[in-house]
Amino acid sequence: YYIKCKIGSVDKTFNISAAANKEDLGGDIVSYSVFGKAVTDVNNFESLGFTIQLSIPFVAGTYKENDPTTDYFLAGIYNPNTTDPAQIFASGYDDSNPFRITFTEVTATTLSGTFSGKLFINDTDPTADSAVLSNGQFKVKLQ
Q1: Is the C-alpha dihedral spanning 89, 82, 135, 38 positive or negative?
Q2: At a CB cut-off of 8 Å and minimum separation 6, what does 57 contact?
Q3: pLDDT single digits (tens) 36-46
Q4: Residue 8 in contact with residue 132, Cβ under 8 Å?
Q5: How far apart are CA 101 and CA 111, in angstroms?
Q6: Are 29 and 9 in contact (CB under 8 A)?
Q7: Coil, strand or helix: which one is 120?
Q8: Beta-carbon contacts of residue 76 (< 8 Å; ≥ 6 apart)
């Protein structure tokens, strides 16, 4: 199982504890979270994750953070190895390069697909540092 992508111009793989979990949030809302670490060192926090919360049936397809519907909410996060929350990249609703995921496989045991988009240090400041994710691919076990 793995999550991999290019961050800027650097290839990254997050295959340590790469997995997904499903949680019923009540009110017909279901959340799926995907997460993986870059290295086994417990003192290294480099990791990548994303979450989708849906009020509609979860099916294969493309989901974007800036979708105008209220059927789902999508967010991505990248920790470059820091304990400072102000230095962690997160979705910022960038209209020119929104965080997006295409789920190609949604089963009771596996999630897989592709992803890309732009994450920001501070999603309220359009001039904040950003991380551009491209060529993202994942296949994780749903726990």
Answers
A1: negative
A2: none
A3: 999 999 999 99
A4: yes
A5: 11
A6: no
A7: strand
A8: 48, 49, 50, 65, 90, 91, 99, 115, 117, 119, 133
